[in-house]
Amino acid sequence: MTNLEIIHKLKRRLHAISENSTNQSRAGIDFLRFLGVMLILTLLVRGTAAATTPVVTVTNPYQGTVSQSFILSGELSPGAGTPLTLPEGLLIEQVLVQPGDSVTQGQTLAVLSVDDIDTAIDQLQASLEQHQVQADQLTNADVADSFAWQQAQQQLDRAYSNYQQIVTENEQAIASAQEALDSARKTLSEVEGREPQRPFEDSYWEMATPEQTETEQKYSDWQNELSNAQAAVQQAQNDLESAQQTAESEQENALAAAQSAEDSRNSAQHSYEKEAADLAESNRSDLASAEVLLAQIRQEKQKLADLTALKNASGNFSAPADGIITEISLVPGETSSAVAGLLAAGEQSYTLITPVTSAQSTLIQSGCTISVKQGQTTGSAALESIESDMAQLTVSGSQWKVGTATITVTTTSGESGLCLPATAVNSDNTGDFVYLVETKNTVLGAQNVLVRLPVTVDERGDGVVRVSGALDGKEQIVSASSKPLSAGAQVRIDA
């Protein structure tokens, strides 16, 4: 029921009371009329205020960043593709495809001369046999002959053994001679210790007594024994010196023979090591050459397998997989090259080309997120280059198709701050400002009143602005209104 309807109803009710009342109740009726008028005036005031008060939507400032986005349209095409390899030098009789054609696995792309294939197979088999023989020769490493060194080492070992034997034998001979000398000296000392009484030599007698004769005989016998003992010592001394001289001579000769054998061994060892080093270097060179030959053999075997497959297919060169021919380099009447063309098959990336404005180019190159949508397929893209207002992007995945795609570019500022909806910021000739909603007490009770607050707009984005000023994030900021606003105006917050 509207305010006007309520007023009319009260007026009719008061009028009925007035017609039916008696003169005694006139005073009470007048008082009721006064109350009714006051009620009517109050309702009129409140109804008018409610009808003219703007209804606003409020929001709180929040910490965040500002993003900007724009939409582009581009053309998707497969990457360059993978090479279609083919044996070289074969006559091309027919070419059945051209760039841009979609092909299926096993589809014939070109027809090559079978005669050329047969000739190439014969030549390749002969070359393979020759290269295999050469590789086998190069991989059989030469080894240095160690016989002379080993023989010289054996002679050296025998010479040192002979020297040691001579030293031992001479030591034994010297020891034996020394022992004989010591024994002779001991005997001489024992004989010298038994010197008998010397006979009386200054007297002369015509007839010696038996005692004198015995003394003379004992002394004479002792002198003979002493002389023999002295001679034995001298002989033992001579034998010892002879043994020492013999030992010295024989050991010098044996040592000289050992030294000569060692010199011969060292010379033989040096010759062997030099030969081994020279052969090792030669073997390394041969092995390197063999590796080159083996790599060539592997290539020739692969080429032979390709030629054999072509021969079995009657010269028909087929697509190895489903895909799109992005390049073909075969010409009828000419000979084949190593790469017959490019096939985009099961590509893991596609190229996306789109025109851009200078402003968009700047935003894309400053760092952004690029999303791509083609039908129900979505994914991300990476910028490759921008030239002449054309951007080239790379889209990962094999789920794409050749054709148009929608590109959404979104840039996000690295700056964080208090953000508001763009509709919350107003501008006039004095600058940018927002309306705060504050609750104040009036004659009509608590009312929501607008307060103008200047702000600085730091950055604008997609429906969002980042501002700075006297805000702490707890304010109620007007973001939308049913009517124009002004500072000090009373508003009603939309529930």
Largest sheet, in brief, is: 9 strands, mixed
Number of strands: 22
What overall geometry do the principal axes of the alpha carbons give?
elongated
Helix content: 40-55%
Order of helices and strands: HHEEEEEEEHHHEEEEHEEEEEEEEEEE
Distance, first to last CA: 21 Å
Describe it for me?
This protein is α+β, with helices and mostly antiparallel strands and 495 residues long. Among the domains are: 50 residues, no CATH class; 89 residues, conserved putative lor/sdh protein from methanococcus maripaludis s2 fold; 162 residues. Helix content is 46%, strand content 29%. It contains six helices and 22 strands. The strands form four sheets. Strands 1, 2, 16, 17, 18, 19, 20, 21 and 22 form a nine-stranded mixed β-sheet that branches. Strands 3-11-14-13-12-15 form a six-stranded antiparallel barrel. The chain has a four-stranded antiparallel β-sheet with strand order 4-10-9-6, with no helix packed on it. Strand 13 and strand 14 form a beta hairpin. The longest helix is centred in the middle third of the chain and has 103 residues. The protein is elongated and about 215 Å long. It starts with a helix and ends with a strand.
